[in-house]
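Q: What would this chain look like folded?
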Amino acid sequence: MGSTQEQVLHELEAALRAASKRVYATTSRQGSIRGHRIDRAGYAALSVIDENTELRLSEVASCLELDLSTVSRQVRQLEDAGLVRRRPDPLDGRASLLTLSPEGRRVLAAVRAARVDLLAHALREWRSADRAELLRLLQRLLDDLTPAEARTPLTRTSLRGTA
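A: My prediction, written as structure tokens:
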């Protein structure tokens, strides 16, 4: 790889990191969302649980590609805040299933709305075609960063290998 290509990749990595940081910083500066402070890890965990309706803690960790003990601490904080509920897994009494509480759904919706508002403001002068092209390229990048086996929608049955 030539130095020009390397430089582009370094600049791309820095730009992606800065964009992520700016989105998080801007939405977190707005203070509490419905009386709750949601950090990046909390937002990610709430999103994964919401996108899959209910999951075991180990499945949340798998989706986030994080260590179980790390996710366990994060989910405990979300439970303590009343944003996540736990119930026994009817398929395995030793395990429990995590779902968002009604307040968790409201908080997640508020955080997502703040992020969408931020993007709408940032992209307000972009042509529609440019926004569509950005989305297309980001989706392509995400696909190329995602292993093929992880590209299927996550379901409880696909995680457990049962039908």
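The helical segments are 3-29, 40-52, 57-64, 68-80, 102-122, 128-145, 156-160.
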